[in-house]
């Protein structure tokens, strides 16, 4: 079963916003065995919408449209769909009642444009949007399903989860798609490929292998599709084991989880706590951990010690250490990590101190020089990394390196296999 | 001048990665007066690549393709382009030398697949990729320009900035496009539209107004295109002023900057320092500030005080306060902010404490309850927000609310107009 996503809105085409909806939708649709054939971002123009809709129907059975449903003049999706399907707009009483209620709850008066949001093409199935005022519209047309929903992520997500995915599952008999991810570190994409060339060659045609490189890690993804889910799971497990065995020490994780979530799970299982001492990563690692519900059982908090003064105050880094070795040094990183374990009273701590750039580098310590330390109550280890010149990339690389160092240390201390 | 972006790669279509490249490319192209007509994400299949390429050439003059250039089997962009343009692959000596050098620098041996990366369609213009091994390829075909580049963001970005944009500027005589952004808060999209309906009606046809709502803010964007840049700037300034005058106190910012950058600029100009005390935002606000080069002159650091113990230890929140009012309370928020100003020795501090969810709520304090406090050396103010049930959205909303509160306080204290 093939689907396409069409996102409508000039704001994507001028780069004002990043389209995060499509990736989320694709992930959810994949889980139910619907493959995305194409994602198309187009402007708020009737002609363009019609053309994209025609092209998409040539390729796919399900067309999911987001955006262009706001109450303002620049949004033309609804009237365009009404004309396209030859269904005049009519006021939908249930939607109007919902919109009225929505404004009452917000304690704001309604205006003409809001009432117009309750108009829908006469003949589509209207799905009430509990999280907003623009209704979701479901069309069936020449054996294709076309759904129009708002582009606001939390309106779209709820509609997909609660309404659209269940309806798609009901409408089609779908094959299963099973994914297995293998996160590796320390080997480039081409080297990995060479090492497992024979295993890749031997994969049956319904199992595909993809390489997803990101910074110093490569995620391998096996995808199998078929009608028997149990058989697929067994089959993909078999091939996964072969690859994991072959790549051995380069395999970090065989769960499709963000790295920080795998750390939280492992530490949570062993009732261990974590704190952070972040200098050049500036809160980014804390943010990664605290994105996840329940992170507070493991993650206690930490210091974002951008200034030297805060490194001393919060982490107890010695003034002599900073004077003699500098803020970006093995000694400072170690004292930061030890200080975090001691002051924040946690089992483990990560410390990161480096020069993220673009300024602040020197001949001895160029931009991209980063020290990471991992401390427990009994030991501390530090390692230097030399990244490149780009600030955001250095922040992300430092975060990944720090989490990797902690993860490997945990696996060693806890005697855990990948 | 119209361009299209085609991103190639199954990883986007299965939702494994979010396409951030396209927004960045669109922003950069807009600056030189190239409008993006469509962004299309397709799979690593020759037939799909050819179809997308044909369709794009019907609509645009410049086609920028990213992705599918890796050394592994799943990447077929290069061979597909070679067949499409009827240019057999040949080994490019300059590229081979570059690839060799690249591997030498990394101290890794080359394998067959890497040598193949130096093969290019015979007849295209090869642009060396200083940040990677896959070369960039520039084709001219029936008065259209088609460029293929790697999808790795920092390879693509450098190639766009240093090579492709200068070449596009040379190849075409481009109109100017001028954007002006007006960030507003406190009024919904439809209300804003109603308040400025006559001003919008009166805009000349070469100036467009767009509404970009995000959480509790709406960014208005005026875009003007034409051949005389100075005239456009004057004209857009005139219309901007009219809108700003009309919306008055709802206007937060008339610069097209991320909110945190506007705060850094304002505080930097007045030589003020900032620290943070983050509980439910978990480092996210720190991360927002520290993304920006030079943020360290204003932002000194802060505490990510997830646990109550850390709230007491780092910020001096009193145990009685936590016992009597709880961690999510006006009193705790205020003590956190005052503690940050005092302990971290900064001019201002923001404190955020709340229940991000999905768990941890109660009848009195449901998920989404967030207290924000802003303190200076002489005063502290706190405000409660009631957000919704979604964790990531609550983190982001809290961050925006906190920055807004600081920004308004700064404007008041410094007597600054929007």
Give a description of the structure.
2 copies of one chain form a homodimer. By secondary structure, chain A is of the alpha/beta class. The first copy, chain A, folds into 3 domains: 2-171, Molybdenum Cofactor Biosythetic Enzyme, Chain A (3-Layer(aba) Sandwich), CATH 3.40.980; 176-253, 2-Layer Sandwich (Alpha-Beta Plaits); 259-414, Maf protein, CATH 3.90.950. In chain A, 42% of the residues lie in helices and 25% in strands. Chain A has 16 helices and 17 strands. Chain A has helices at residues 10-13, 21-31, 46-59, 77-84, 93-106, 112-116, 153-171, 189-195, 197-201, 229-247, 259-269, 284-290, 308-315, 319-325, 330-343, 391-414; strands at 2-8, 35-42, 62-66, 89-91, 119-121, 125-127, 136-141, 144-149, 176-185, 207-214, 217-226, 251-253, 274-278, 299-305, 348-354, 369-376, 380-386. In chain A, a hairpin with an 8-residue loop joins strand 6 (125-127) and strand 7. The radius of gyration of chain A is 26 Å and the shape is globular. The model of chain A has no long low-confidence stretch (mean pLDDT 93). At the A-B interface, helix 1, helix 2, strand 2, helix 3 and helix 6 of A face helix 1, helix 2, strand 2, helix 3 and helix 6 of B. Strand 2 of chain A pairs antiparallel with strand 2 of chain B, so a sheet runs across the interface.
